[in-house]
């Protein structure tokens, strides 16, 4: 890590303009050349630079690597100007009369990671819009700020617990060596802040964008789906978890399916998409870990194992259906326990190296709750005995 250069924000700032340029230029066989500078900048920043702060490195890398995947989709695999349309769009963006119209179209595409408002929107996988088009902007902003506050309090409660737990602050004993019940508790203590941090950013960003009139209220969706849907591992990933990477993870699988002439809708098609998507997700997170750790962590094992486990899960559900079991409330309760057991077992493969590198310690120094309780804002102290 000592041999790595300081992270360059200026160099990082070139990635988005290059992708936008690739979307704006006229379709040409030379357009794929623009993928090379994106890949080169990302490779250098992730593998040869550091901020010296574990959580910041992970956050930056978790932004950089998805941009590479997006660039690969939009520059190499797809001709967006002739294949990707906004709902209601009448002409290809290549026919837009002004440069600004093309740039606006490109920015809308780049920052619509879930495809909301586009023909590739995964409507069945996203939560429905909770606000009507005529909803009050003030009411929406107030709702989003209140949502952000609730998520922050959830984050803060878990942060208080984490700061008093050596497994998070010191990385010892390792999470994988904890008693099973404690492992389940600690899995939630990591998952809730991770989920809350994403939801807070999304809530605040949407409040600003709607407040400025950039986003229409009717196209806004919650970042996460209904948690009641997460009674299988497949449903958790496909319906409850955020779908920010769905397009860039499924597009290569669809191209592979076409190349191999696999019939659409077949079980082979389904599992081609499943394994390709989790392989690419594993690669994105595995690479992002490197910037923080200075080596590869456990993301590859964790994300690839999800595809294998879903295959087993599908087989068990199919077998149960053949012998007469049908979906019911008691079976859903069993399903929630099934999902909990799996993530308590598999999640430590990924997060243990990150915890050991100081991810939780760096990101949980202050507490709003303890600040009000104690009357000060000093960083929390590690309690050596744990909880």
Automatic annotation (TrEMBL):
GO terms for molecular function: O-acyltransferase activity. Pfam families: MBOAT_2. Keywords: Membrane, Transferase, Transmembrane, Transmembrane helix. Residues 220-304 form the Wax synthase domain. GO terms for cellular component: membrane. The keyword Transcription does not apply. One of its GO terms (biological process) is lipid metabolic process. This is Wax synthase domain-containing protein. The chain crosses the membrane at residues 6-25, 145-168, 267-288, 300-321, 333-351. It is found in: Membrane. The lineage of its organism: Eukaryota, Fungi, Dikarya, Basidiomycota, Agaricomycotina. Its main location: membrane.
